[in-house]
Each structure stands twice: as C-alpha cells, then as structure tokens.
Design brief:
heterodimer; A: 114 residues; mainly beta; seven-stranded mixed β-sheet; globular; B: 117 residues; six-stranded mixed β-sheet; four-stranded antiparallel β-sheet; 0% helix; 51% strand
Chain lengths: 114, 117
C-alpha cells in the first residue's frame, strides 16, 4: 500500500517563475492538505482540498493556488516566485471522516528560489 | 485562536536516559492532538495521537504522551532514548468545528532532540 507520494523531490527556480508541485494521496484517502515548512520552522497550513474544491485556506497570498483531480491527486501552484518561497512543501492526505481523520505526510518537495 | 507552544527548541539528552518534550496548546473547542517526528531530509511521520478516551497514549518507537486538559498540555516522553531518536519533533493540534468542517492542523515550531553518546 503506497503512502503519500510527492514529486519532484527537489526543485530550483528563479524569482518570478512559476512552479507546480504534485501529490498522490495514500490509497483510500480523499482529502489533501498542503503545508509550507520554512527552514527551522514548523509546517504552516496552506490549503485543503476535498471533492475537487478548496475547502479551507491558511494565511497565504493568492499566488498560491491548487487543484484536486477526480482521482484525488493534487497540485500546488505558486506564481511569481519570491526568495521567501524557498521551503519544504509537504502534502498530507486523510479521509473525510471525523472519527478517522488522521493526516499522513509525504516526504515533501524542497523548493529553492534563487 | 488556536496555537501550539513547544517550550524547548532543543533538548540534549544522554543515550539511554529518559526524555520529556513539552507541548502546550490553546483552543476553545475540542481538539485532537498529535506528535510527529521528522528525521533529517524527510517528511513527517506520525508518532502518536490523542483523539479521545485514555489520556495516556502510546505510540511507535517506545514513545508515549499524556493529555492533560486542565493544564492544556500534551507532553511527549520516552524512558530510554537511543541515538536513532535524533530528530525534530513536532506537536500539533487539529481543531474540528463540526458542521463547517474547519479541521486544519496547527503545528508547533518543533523541538530538536540531540542524543549524546
């Protein structure tokens, strides 16, 4: 049973560029959440997708957008990259069931903006 | 607003000694509590969780945590650490507000556990 998989593992971009990160949830999970983890910090919630819609959003600008596909996989898009967007981006999947809603994390994509 | 405070940014401890990593949270609604571990250059792995029931929760790798509602704490403990426990540990709270499905996870800033030989 595959866990949460993210691609790519590492990415280098320059300021102003756009980037797309991908996430495949754990088998059986239907909800995907994205987090940004800056160096030396805890993960910060970006947004969550369920039924192909953004259900909840953290305190991130509109440059951060996402998508969820019918197979529950998800993408995170960041436009007009800034140096401060350099971080580890983590995807977490869960089941839309309050009694069983535990988030499982992927290994992350490390984004470096030069 | 909900928040999670990890009182120690770094904790050095000798191998085979006991350790406690402290976590306090603030929330006005029901919470679910978690501890995650992050090994170098890796994602987060769930150590243990408190959803309901017994306040003493046992997790993987010999770790346990105790939920204390009156003190709003969820400290992580291990009676004897090993060099392989060297990692960053994150306390997290998931707040669920029922009908509006507000169920994001809020993380603390992390505690780096250094195991000394």
């Amino acid at each position: 049973d595959a866990g949460v998989t993210q691609s790519p593992t590492h990415l280098i971009k320059t300021r102003g560029q756009q980037v797309t990160l991908r996430c495949s949830p754990k088998s059986g999970h239907d909800t995907v959440s994205w987090y940004q983890q800056a160096l030396g910090q805890g993960p910060q919630f970006i947004f969550q997708y369920y039924e192909e819609e953004e259900r909840q959003r953290g305190n991130f600008p509109d440059r951060f957008s996402g998508h969820q596909f019918p197979n529950y996989s998800s993408e995170l898009n960041v436009n007009a990259l800034l140096l401060g967007d350099s971080a580890l981006y983590l995807c977490a999947s869960s089941l839309n069931d309050l009694a069983k809603n535990i988030q499982y994390f992927g290994a992350g994509t490390r984004l470096s903006v030069l | 607003a909900q928040s999670v405070t990890q009182l120690d940014s770094q904790v050095p401890v000798f191998e085979e000694a006991p350790v406690e990593l402290r976590c306090n949270y603030s929330s006005s609604v029901s919470v679910y509590l978690f501890w995650y571990v992050q090994y170098p250059n890796q994602g987060l792995q769930l150590l243990l969780k408190y959803l309901s029931g017994s306040t003493l929760v046992k997790g993987i790798n010999g770790f346990e945590a105790e939920f204390n509602k009156s003190q709003t704490s969820f400290h992580l403990r291990k009676p004897s650490v090993h060099i392989s426990d060297t990692a960053e540990y994150f306390c997290a709270v998931r707040v669920t507000r029922g009908m509006n499905r507000d169920d994001k996870i809020i993380f603390g800033k992390g505690t780096r556990l250094h195991i000394l030989p």
